[in-house]
Amino acid sequence: MKNWPDHQPLPSTDQLEYLADIVKNSNQNGAPGRSSSDKHLPMIHCLGGVGRTGTMAAALVLKDNPHSNLEQVRADFRDSRNNRMLEDASQFVQLKAMQAQLLMTTAS
Asked: Entry's SUPFAM superfamilies (predicted)?
């Protein structure tokens, strides 16, 4: 993903969900490597490794389980990675919006 500004959410929640779908699909299928037996999995990382990285990792958690407790997801990320994971309020708000969208979709 290019042009995702540091300390900012993506321009739309739909973009975040779409990007999570791409990463999830790559995770499941791998990308073709140099030979047919090689598979390359995606790497998620941003400059600091806590804001955009945490946002994408949390989005992947939500794709697997929209009922996840986002506050607990953030606490788990901070315990296992860095106490600054998901520190940007606007990115966390976007995750909550994505979760609401996912829950509405699963309820329909």
From this structure: (Phosphotyrosine protein) phosphatases II (SSF52799)
- Active-site annotation, residues: 46
* 1 part of a folded domain: no
Question: Domain tally for the chain?
Answer: 1
Domain at 51, CATH number: 3.90.190.10
Q: Domain range holding 67?
A: 13-29+43-107
* Residues 3-47 pLDDT 10s: 888 889 999 999 999 999 988 887 666 655 555 555 666 677 787
pTM for the predicted model, two decimal places:
0.84
**By C-alpha distance, which of 45, 44, 50, 48 is closest to 91?**
50
b/e for 21-49, b at 16 or more Cβ within 10 A? eebeeeeeeeeeeeeeeeeeeeebeeeee
